[in-house]
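Milestone M4 deliverable, item 7.
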Amino acid sequence: MMPQKINLEKMKKEIKKLISEIAEIPQNQIKDDARFVEDLGIDSMMALEIVASIEKKYKIVIPEDKIPTINSLNTIYSLIKEISTKKK
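Output delivered:
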């Protein structure tokens, strides 16, 4: 069975919506390269909530050593792509 191909545009919209809800920031103010802490004011508790929500939604596990590297939407996108292509 082929691994599920992730629709990148759909995933980006879904993750942006998720972050918008958790951080209480309008989606149109969240840019792909916005830094979570510096630009969006996301604290460590929000970050963990985001990671947990992404893991649940996409049925993936984000390795603990990768979590500190997540600092923008772009890093989330590439991480999910990397994990989902490894997943069999």
